[in-house]
Amino acid sequence: MKPLLPYFAFLSLALCTSPLPAKASPPGEEIYQEARRTLAGEGAPKDPQAAYEKMKAAAALGNADAIGTLGYFYSTGAGGAPKDEAQAIAQFRKGAELGSARAMYNLGRALIAGQTQPITPEEDGVAWVRKAAETGLPVAMRELAQFYFHGMNAPQDDKLAYTWGVKAADADDADAQNLVGYLLSRGRGVKKDKAAAEQWLRKAANAGNTKAQSNLGHLLGPTDGSDPKRQQEAIRWLLVAESKREVTAIKTLQEIRPALPPELVAAAQRDASALLLQQRVSR
């Protein structure tokens, strides 16, 4: 079996997602939430070992999310759990079959990382990610949108990328908001709408999304002097993205900076520095 490392970043997102609304509290939910907070370090220092013990207790009570989350411990060896990739996938699958959206997503990512051809329905990682997305799990909806956008693990389809992306964007996923803004700005999979694109990109940029900051800077027009205020804001966003080593922003500023008025760049740099300080303080 291939190592499961490629999906760890996605796994952590699924684990740290706020609980989905539920009509009734599942068995062991209070213990599961306590274990989740302990693992994430919410309200107290992180304690993976204590989280592992609490997660096992919640799983023993039949909590589907806890059963699935034990897969994370087995895949990483966190909290002193025995590192066992086969057991990790078994836990993800058990949680998924019991209805845990997070477990569906993590099972899907694990299968995608290690799947071989031909793929049986039980081993189709994308299908499990789609099932998680259909429950409304934001990270799964965004992931599915990116699959379709990039043509990665699924046929390239801008319409489906927009459809799933806007669902995740509505759930405040900043990466999805950036994707939706980009699609709207280019008219890919949806009618071109620069005003709507700006709204989505601004929302993601204000949340600190680096790619959205770059995309918003480009959309606002860093070389368009017809609206100096808007031009200064465009340069500000590119400078913010540049400070985070965003490749497109770096390249654009290298190309346009020599022709820009020095006082305009200086003012935009002051704005960028203030914004970066504000975002650091608010974290």
Shape descriptor reads elongated
Q: What distance lies between the first and last C-alpha atoms, to the nearest angstrom?
A: 39 Å
Unreliable residue stretches: 1-13
State Rg: 22 Å
Average pLDDT value? 91
Main β-sheet: number of strands, strand sense, barrel status?
Answer: none
Oligomer: single chain
Strand residues, percent: under 5%
Outline the structure in words.
- Helices cover 69% and strands 0% of the residues.
- The chain has 15 helices and no strands.
- The longest helix has 21 residues, at 262-282.
Keywords:
mainly alpha
What's the helix and strand layout?
Blueprint: H1 8-16, H2 29-40, H3 48-60, H4 64-76, H5 85-97, H6 101-114, H7 125-134, H8 138-150, H9 158-170, H10 174-186, H11 194-206, H12 210-220, H13 228-243, H14 247-256, H15 262-282
Helix pairs in contact: 1-6, 2-3, 3-4, 4-5, 4-6, 5-6, 6-7, 7-8, 8-9, 9-10, 10-11, 10-12, 11-12, 12-13, 13-14, 13-15
In short:
The chain is mainly α and 283 residues long. The protein has helices at residues 8-16, 29-40, 48-60, 64-76, 85-97, 101-114, 125-134, 138-150, 158-170, 174-186, 194-206, 210-220, 228-243, 247-256, 262-282.
